[in-house]
Amino acid sequence: MSLLSLSAKKTAELIHDGRIFKHTLDDKTSAQVSNELKSRAGRPAPFAKLKLSENSTLPSIGTNYTELMFYLPHGIKLKNVERLAVNHLDDEYLAFVERMLTDMDVLTKMPYTLQNVLDALVDPDSREKLRHLKFLSCALTLTRPMMESISQKFTNLTALDFTGTFLKSHELMHVASVFTKLRMLSIALTTVTSLNGIGQLKDLEVLNMAGVDLEEEEDIQELRELKKLRVLELSAIETSGDQNFKLYMNCEISLPELRFLDISFHEITEKQLQTLVASHPKIIQIGLIGTPLQEREPHTNPNIRLVTVENLECCLKAFEDLNKDNCREVRKPKQEQVFDAMEAILLGDYDEQSEIVLRKCFDALLPKCETIENWMAEESIACLYQMCKDDRVNMFNYEEIQHLISMLAKASERLFDIADVDDPSFIMQVRIWKIFNFDAVFKNSVDNLEYLCHKAIDVIGSSFELKSEAEYPVENCVIFLHRCFFSDAYPGIQLIEEKKKELVDQVLSYMEHIKIFQEEHFQDLHSFFTQLAAAVIWRDEKKGQVSWPNIFRLTRAIVKWITNLRRFNDNWERQLNILIQKISLTVRLRSIYLAMFFGELFPTLTRLILTRGSIQQECGVTLFYAIKVLFEIPYQSKFLDIMKGEKNTIIGIINDVNRYKKKSRIEDKLALYWWLAENGSEETVEWAEWILHHFDEVPEPRCKRRLPWEDEEKMESYYPC
Question: What are 165-175's pLDDT values in tens digits?
Answer without folding.
Answer: 888 999 999 99
